[in-house]
Every structure is written in structure tokens, then in C-alpha cells.
Amino acid sequence: MIDNMEGLPGKEGKRRFQLWLKPSVLEMADDLYEKDNCGSRSEFIEKAIQFYAGYLYAQHSQDYFPGVITSTLKGIMADSTNKISRILFKLAVEQAITMNVVAATCNISQEQLEKLRGTCVAQVKRTNGVYSFEDAFDFQKR
After folding, report:
1. How far apart are CA 133 and CA 127, in angstroms?
2. Do 19 and 10 meet the contact criterion of CB atoms below 8 Å apart?
């Protein structure tokens, strides 16, 4: 049996040593190593140690990571806010054009406009903001 694979390219050598575990912990490793796609109990234990070491390193780096994460998230949010604001501005311009064209071509009273606004608010609330041209067309044709 080969205990040390240091001579193989790209392989870090492994060493055999004695490990004492409680039977319940060993049973846990036996139950879980295949579910974690590990080839052996040893591979599972090695991955568990690496995971826990990463956790401990992160604990020591807690002063660094939150600042980096916060800074990154603020940058992402600022970019997203900027993009959404530009899109909403363009949409508002297009809507203003449409409203001016409709207002210029329709002869509707102020009273009818206020009634229509109330109806539209109710329809948009009822559909959770998902209101299409077809919905308006159907409403106007009844």
C-alpha cells in the first residue's frame, strides 16, 4: 500500500496517522461520506477539517470581510439604482408623449377623466400591477 504520493505530479502527499474518534462520530462519517460524493471516510474527514479550518480563518478575518462585502454590495446597489432610474426616466418620457397624443385626440370631460382614474386604480390593484393594453381594450369595448 502506498502511504505517500509525493512523487506523483500535482499530488500532495498523504500520510497515515492514528485518529481516535467517538463511535457516534465515526458512524456519522460513515453515514454521510457517500452522500457528499466522497470516495472514502478519510476523504470526508479531510473535507470536514478543511471546511472547519475555513470557518476559523473567516472568524479571524471578520474585521476585513464585512467591509469588503459591504463595499461590494453598495457598489452593486448604486449601479442597479442608476440603471433603474435611467430606465424609469425613459419610460416616463414615453408615457408623457402617449398621454399628450391621447389628450390631443380625445374629447373627454374632467369628470370622466376622474372616474376613469378611479377605475384604473382599482383595476391595477386587482391585477397587482399586471395590466395590459388588451385589458384596457376589453374594458373600453364593454
Report:
1. 13
2. no
